[in-house]
Design brief:
alpha/beta; eight-stranded mixed beta sheet; 35% helix; binds beta-D-ribofuranose; binds calcium ion
């Protein structure tokens, strides 16, 4: 039986690859995609998601979610760039504003993503798996509206956080940094949770050769993925070079891949994860208590510190090949 999933995105180049993978996989039943403010403002992330599902002719409803994080922008000087408009140097931009896809007449659903999440997870008769690859605002809000939805969540797979690797500040990863309070609410919600942090996604890097291989495929999804990969590699080479030249992570796709094949995630640890909402230099930091120092906090997630790159890239190529 196919696994019923909901995917929440801030599309975004790697989000786009995650949507393609989730939408094309025969193992997953993607019942809807929700959008959130993150890599860009909500108008852009929603438009990009609609363009993408239309381009691939995917029959998947898209729900527009929160346009701002829960509270982070209320405190003066806590954040300067919310909604985010991308890096100053546009050459470093791995997302761009709009995906280079035809404009679409496809419309988002009328219901707000938060209400849709709360309603769907309340009414469902079978448990649903959630994959969240942007800031966690929509889920945190749904949990505040309807905390009992936790009982109907099979698992939450989250791309977010970092242990030895971070990407916005010395301590924080982008998704958690954009909305730390939301990340903390979700971390403490009590549902089974797998965390796919930067440590795992950087291990599952894609290479320029991978991108060329995908561009040469006779499939819309593979070609578009190849293009996005090259955009990401070019940006990473400039602002955050990986140890191997001409490679880049495609974070969000790894979280979706973990639902199709759990073995893509490696070096798993059952730990307590907390998220720092300090407003200070550690704001948004994901704290993994490997030594179980804080006895008051029990393990609340499984975190993957590594991944099987070959397995992931193979899975991605096989699935994206399925589009026309
Ligand atoms: C995360 O931040 C975003 O820029 C990416 O889409 C990914 O979800 C990585 O830190
Ligand atoms: Ca994302």
């Amino acid at each position: 039986m196919k696994k019923k999933i909901i995917l929440d995105v801030d599309t975004g180049s790697d989000d786009a690859i995650a949507v393609m993978l989730a939408g094309l996989s025969e193992e997953l039943d993607l019942i809807g995609v929700s959008t959130v403010n993150g890599n860009r403002n909500i108008d852009i992330t929603t438009t990009n998601t609609l363009r993408l599902v239309d381009y691939l002719d995917l029959d998947i409803p898209v729900y527009r979610g929160c346009h701002l994080p829960m509270v982070v922008s209320l405190t003066p000087n806590r954040r300067k760039n919310v909604p985010y408009i991308g890096p100053d140097n546009k050459e470093e931009d791995v997302h761009g504003d709009y995906l280079p896809l035809p404009e679409t007449t496809r419309k988002e659903e009328k219901e707000h993503a938060v209400f849709w999440l709360a309603r769907t997870l309340t009414e469902t008769t079978e448990k649903i798996t959630l994959v969240f690859v942007g800031p966690l605002t929509n889920l945190a809000m749904a949990l505040r509206i309807a905390p009992s939805i936790v009982e109907n969540i099979e698992e939450i797979v989250i791309m977010g956080g970092g242990y030895a690797i971070n990407n916005v500040t010395a301590g924080a990863e982008f998704n958690f940094w954009i909305d730390p309070e939301a990340a903390k609410i979700v971390a403490d919600c009590g549902a089974p949770m797998r965390i796919v942090p930067l440590d795992a996604t950087h291990d599952a890097y894609i290479s320029w050769e991978d991108s060329e291989e995908m561009l040469a495929e006779n499939s819309k999804a593979s070609k578009f993925c190849g293009l996005l990969m090259q955009q990401r590699i070019t940006g990473y080479n400039l602002f955050q070079p990986l140890p191997i030249h001409n490679t880049a992570p495609i974070h969000d796709a790894l979280a979706v891949a973990a639902l199709i094949d759990p073995e893509v995630l490696q070096d798993l640890h059952e730990v307590n994860m907390d998220v720092c909402v300090s407003h200070g230099i550690a704001d948004g930091w994901s704290l993994f208590d490997f030594e179980k120092r804080n006895r008051a906090r029990k393990p609340n997630c499984t975190v993957a510190l590594r991944s099987d790159r070959e397995r992931f890239v193979r899975l991605l190529k096989e699935n994206l090949r399925k589009s026309k």
